[in-house]
């Protein structure tokens, strides 16, 4: 059986895991909405990726000010670096939604 000292010493702390999960969800939704916007606007090549970069920076700024209260090292282990990092799966989600909406809106014009 684990004692209270051992429970406190655990590396995985449930409230932190829940907080980081909500940050991941915000990043995922931001990349999906940016992909939909890029597809609807008909952006191609680097302009679409520039929109993705702008959306990542905007969502990071919002999380930095609102969620982390301008002190990300207290909430995220890697600090600002982990907040800005979109993650490989979010880039793929962006491209998938971008091509989906581009195909729906602009292919048959």
TrEMBL record:
Pfam families: EMC6. InterPro entries: Emc6, EMC6-like. It is a multi-pass membrane protein. GO terms for cellular component: EMC complex. It comes from Schizopora paradoxa. Belongs to the EMC6 family. This is ER membrane protein complex subunit 6. It comes from the Eukaryota. The chain crosses the membrane at residues 21-43, 49-66, 91-108. GO terms for biological process: autophagosome assembly; protein folding in endoplasmic reticulum. Keywords: Endoplasmic reticulum, Membrane, Transmembrane, Transmembrane helix. It is found in: Endoplasmic reticulum membrane. Its main location: endoplasmic reticulum.
